[in-house]
């Protein structure tokens, strides 16, 4: 009506619709389903994602060699049993192996059968003795070994060297024939978590990845190595020329940037599936039930496998005497794959320097994302990963401003060259903290250069980020600081009494550590503690109330 009114010879002055200036996203109905529910998805608790990612990377980088070597050996042994003939030599070898175990009361190699429950590991026994499976079944029935194996269950060790270590010691005494399929399944699930969490992909995009999607890059002319790139398909809002949704998706115009843990996870999956196959092909990953479905593993299947992996992690943490590395229950329920994308944005926005999973390269990730390597990276029409990151960054900044406002109102003093600007920024903050916002509104909020506040607990300060005066080398157009590269003497820094107190407490913890470590390391701890106390002292000498700071 407004457009028609503009063309009329006698316009009646219909108001220009706000979406002509602000964009249409905020005026469309809420999206539903996987594509539209990201901003409403709760991130995983830091105490959950930390050990979950640590164990996932450990499986991929430390244990995958042993697991895949055991898987190859198991398949070789299984093929040997299928080809074995019934011979007298095989029967003699079977008796020589089993009878001493039966008569001595030793544990018998056991497995869990759907029909018999805990029973003798038929395939394993046939493989190590060279007999046929029929001969094993016959002796099991004659000797009543179903009951005996259930009473005395034992392992099924394979002749595969164990090279993986945990806390400096081998993670397994031997690789077990019966445990290996379960470990392969957990390894694939761990690889999925690493890929999804450290790229920001949607689950549907990760499930469409194929072997060969992340080739090793060629060196640049100057000899430097470019980043690994992942070529993938995306599906959200992909439409043909007639406006119909294309269910097959299309290749992403701008590839995903892959850091080293992601590349390692892809390489592990490429060892499980054949060339050009889907990395999460159900044909090759449904190795326990072996139902031979076509296509990729279903989303619900992967979600269940994440829960199974968490159970295994907690059992393993107990067995390895690592109680601090257990994965606790999350307050918001099951750890679905869709929550990983939201959690990545949450941690990039709120954990300076990457305190999750042994400081995986969040500095690298933040740099790649803030630089907007391409405006199309992770995006498609309504929102991409940048939108998710902007929402979390805006919410974190709003909460920082609210905490500063409350702290100064309660009498805390403030110091630093940006104190006045920070107080003005906190006072002018839109009152949306704690509520979900749109990516468009978040980007608009973050664009207020010099007035957006970022808490950096690692550096014991708040950054009133102003791009031109920042010493953390922000990228052109950046709307957030490189918090992992915070520099002393920056004109954007402010501290409160709480920051000074936190610095003193950290100094005390470092002094306590210094007494328990070798002298060179202890001296380093003491020097760092001294710097923290100096920061606190400088705050005390310059601190002033909010009223004084803006006077």
Commentary on this structure:
This protein is of the alpha+beta class. It contains 21 helices and 13 strands. It has helices at 2-7, 19-22, 33-36, 46-83, 88-104, 122-129, 133-143, 145-151, 180-199, 203-207, 260-272, 282-285, 299-319, 338-350, 362-370, 385-409, 419-427, 439-446, 497-514, 519-542, 546-550; strands spanning 108-113, 117-120, 153-154, 165-166, 169-170, 228-230, 233-234, 250-251, 256-258, 414-415, 452-456, 461-465, 493-496. The strands form 5 sheets. The chain has a 4-stranded antiparallel sheet, with helices on both faces. The protein has a 3-stranded mixed sheet with strand order 2-1-3. Strands 4-5 form a two-stranded antiparallel ribbon. Helix 4 packs across helix 6, helix 14 packs across helix 16 (385-409) and helix 16 (385-409) crosses helix 17. The two termini are 51 Å apart.
Question: What brief labels describe this structure?
Answer:
alpha+beta, globular, 3-stranded mixed beta sheet, 4-stranded antiparallel beta sheet
């Amino acid at each position: 009506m407004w457009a028609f009114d503009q063309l009329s010879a006698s316009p009646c002055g219909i108001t220009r619709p706000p979406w002509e200036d602000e964009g249409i996203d905020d005026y469309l109905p809420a999206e539903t389903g996987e594509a539209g529910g990201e901003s409403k998805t709760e991130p995983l608790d830091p105490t959950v994602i930390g050990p979950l990612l640590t164990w996932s990377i450990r499986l991929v980088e430390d244990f995958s060699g042993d697991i895949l070597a055991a898987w190859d050996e198991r398949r070789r042994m299984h093929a040997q049993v299928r080809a074995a003939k019934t011979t007298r030599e095989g029967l003699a070898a079977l008796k020589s192996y089993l009878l001493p175990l039966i008569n001595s009361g030793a544990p018998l190699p056991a497995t869990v059968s759907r029909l018999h429950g805990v029973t003798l590991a038929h395939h394993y026994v046939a493989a190590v003795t060279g007999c046929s499976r029929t001969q094993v079944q016959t002796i099991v029935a004659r000797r009543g070994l179903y009951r005996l194996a259930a009473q005395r269950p034992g392992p099924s060790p394979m002749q595969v060297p164990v090279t993986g270590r945990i806390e400096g010691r081998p993670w397994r005494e031997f690789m077990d024939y019966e445990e290996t399929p379960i470990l392969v399944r957990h390894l694939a699930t761990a690889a999925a978590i690493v890929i999804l969490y450290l790229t920001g992909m949607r689950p549907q995009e990760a499930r469409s990845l194929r072997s060969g999607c992340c080739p090793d890059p060629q060196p640049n002319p100057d000899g430097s190595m470019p980043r690994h790139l992942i070529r993938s398909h995306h599906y959200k809002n992909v439409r043909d020329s007639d406006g119909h949704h294309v269910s097959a998706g299309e290749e992403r115009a701008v590839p995903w940037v892959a850091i080293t843990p992601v590349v390692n996870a892809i390489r592990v999956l490429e060892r499980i599936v054949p060339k050009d196959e889907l990395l999460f092909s159900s044909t090759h990953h449904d190795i326990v039930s072996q139902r031979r479905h076509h296509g990729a593993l279903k989303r619900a299947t992967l979600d269940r496998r994440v829960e199974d992996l968490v159970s295994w992690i907690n059992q393993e943490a107990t067995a390895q005497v690592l109680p601090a590395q257990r994965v606790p229950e999350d307050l918001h329920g099951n750890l679905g794959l869709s929550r990983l994308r939201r959690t990545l944005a949450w941690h990039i926005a709120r954990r300076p320097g990457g305190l999750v999973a042994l400081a995986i390269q969040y500095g690298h990730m933040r740099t790649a994302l803030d630089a907007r390597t391409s405006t199309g990276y992770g995006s498609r029409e309504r929102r991409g990963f940048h939108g998710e990151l902007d929402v979390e960054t805006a919410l974190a900044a709003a909460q920082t401003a609210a905490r500063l406002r409350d702290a100064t109102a309660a009498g805390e003093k403030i110091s630093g060259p940006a104190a006045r600007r920070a107080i003005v920024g906190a006072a002018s903050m839109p009152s949306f903290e704690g509520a979900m916002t749109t990516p468009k509104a978040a980007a608009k909020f973050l664009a207020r250069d010099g007035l957006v506040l970022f808490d950096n607990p690692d550096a014991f300060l708040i950054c009133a980020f102003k791009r031109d005066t920042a010493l953390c080398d922000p990228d052109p157009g950046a709307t957030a600081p490189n918090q992992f590269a915070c520099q002393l003497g920056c004109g954007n820094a402010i501290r409160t009494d709480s920051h000074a107190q936190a610095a003193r407490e950290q100094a005390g913890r470092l002094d306590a550590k210094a007494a328990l470590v070798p002298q060179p390391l202890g001296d380093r701890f003491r020097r760092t503690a001294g710097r923290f106390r100096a920061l606190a002292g400088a705050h005390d000498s310059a601190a002033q109330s909010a009223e004084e700071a803006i006077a």
